């Protein structure tokens, strides 16, 4: 294992700037967009580096996969910081669980931070559109453009997932006061646990507690807390 790393380090060190390689996939660096890790200044393909960053837990220090020094940030060619977007490759049930547990632990601020993540992804999507236009103008190879498109598709997918999660979170918080919401959350979590174990054995019983359509009857009577004044 160490010898592989040494070979990569040697390959990266030997290559001149023109023929530098990505230390993760070992392809020429200029075939796709690249990022520089700070402060060690090692360069990788942007998508390779992001994929690697997502495999590492966000709450621990990420060591550079080449030199193991801890990474403070990732910087793109334009000098701007590259952040990993919220990974959403998980199963739908797990994502619902994240929302429920987030609401339980952080309340509304969980939804606010999810909203911020969505804004961030929107911004990244706009940036990748610009990058794509520049790449075409510069007549970059197909591979370079495909790399941008693939990241764009991934970001779209995540944005869509967050849209769904925000909607799901909103239906739960709209149920009423804190106690009602907490009650609903534990019911939902129980249902998730049930369907998780059901999925393991048989696939039939995949019902979520929050079925989408019960908007025909009760038109949300806002049970206004009739607050009596205490004298
Ligand atoms: Zn690479
Ligand atoms: Zn490094």
Can you put this structure into words, describing what you see?
With 231 residues, the protein is mainly alpha-helical. The protein folds into two domains: 75 residues, Zinc/RING finger domain, C3HC4 (zinc finger) (Herpes Virus-1, 2-Layer Sandwich); 110 residues, no CATH class. Helices cover 53% and strands 5% of the residues. The protein is built from six helices and three strands; from the N terminus they run H-E-E-H-E-H-H-H-H. Strands 2-1-3 form a three-stranded antiparallel β-sheet. The radius of gyration is 23 Å and the shape is elongated. The structure holds zinc ion (2 copies). One zinc ion binds next to strand 2.
Question: Could you give a quick summary of the protein structure above?
Answer:
The chain is mainly α and 231 residues long. It has 6 helices and 3 strands. It starts with a helix and ends in a 30-residue tail after the last helix.
